[in-house]
Predict the structure of Acetate kinase.
Amino acid sequence: MKVLVINAGSSSLKYQLLDMDTERLLAKGLAERIGIEGSVVTHEPVGKDKVKFERPMETHKEALDIIMRALVNEQYGVIKSLNEIDAVGHRTVHGAESFASSVVINDEVIEKMEECSVLAPLHNPANLIGIRACQEVLPNVPMVGVFDTAFHQTMPKEAYIYPLPYELYEKYRIRKYGFHGTSHRYVSLRAAELLNQDLNQLKLISCHLGNGASIAAIRYGKSIDTSMGLTPLAGLAMGTRCGDIDPEIMIFLRQHGYTTEELDHIMNKESGILGISGISSDFRDVEQAADTGNKRAQLALDVFHYRVRTTIGAYVAAMDGVDGIIFTAGLGENSASTRSAICSGLTYLGIKLNAEKNSKRGEEMVISTADSATNVMVIPTNEELMIARDTVELVQGK
């Protein structure tokens, strides 16, 4: 059974085609910097040379069109026809309380996802674009949505209830949901294997750091808290998102003439690392500028590192200790300077990094020293494999 997994992020689109009879990867790739200057698709067919397509991609639909053509290309494709794809698994971000687990996609699911788009304006629309585009080229292929919010349904009520009038939760289901759940679930499982310990006996903090970023406290295999909230806007400062701020700021700006639409755009697309640095939402661009002495770029990085450190500290308190800290996603996996800056403020946990191991990019390993009181790991996430497993389970169970 061949499963195509589509994982659309706020400025990226990852994909994998897997033979799930053996969980063998056939091809993978990444469309990055979508809507940003310098967009590129990297297509990696297993057993063949990697191919790059450097061309403007204003939308996720344009990126998906390039990917589909690559999969069936005579030279660097891995299948002869799109008919060989038996199922498609989609990373779907916000399911509110409508979806506590993965589901087979139908018209009702799409309608509910559209209703949830107001809660995830950068992601649910992109997910729906991927779903609709796939339905056009693969009209008879079953599709499954795997929700980022599902893993966090184990949070206790004191972690997900906001200190607002309780009637607002009862009427509108306003609460913390959390995101990146598929990634946090995968890396926690891999962390237990890497440490050769029982996941049900570990207290882990998973740091999914990329253009979108979140942290999860995972106690004994279950999420008990996470930094994102009702929407992916909450928590850490991110590529273009502000993260946690004083909500009264928005009322203040309304009094100065800003509309609701303008404020939403500012918080979701003009804030975070881009807003502070004034340079880019891509951490690589900002790090390069900081290295040349740009003070606003350095401030943006300092704010990000500070938010990550203080959130880790809060989750150590929530779990009454921690056995391991995981770095994952684009920035967490590849930026040694980011990991070092964050861990330099966690010496109270007895963390000691192995400088040589920390210098590696994208390799799964423990990067703390043997005498470090807390394990620190880099674990490249594989949301696609988790999505494919759920897809197979649901499609075969129909």
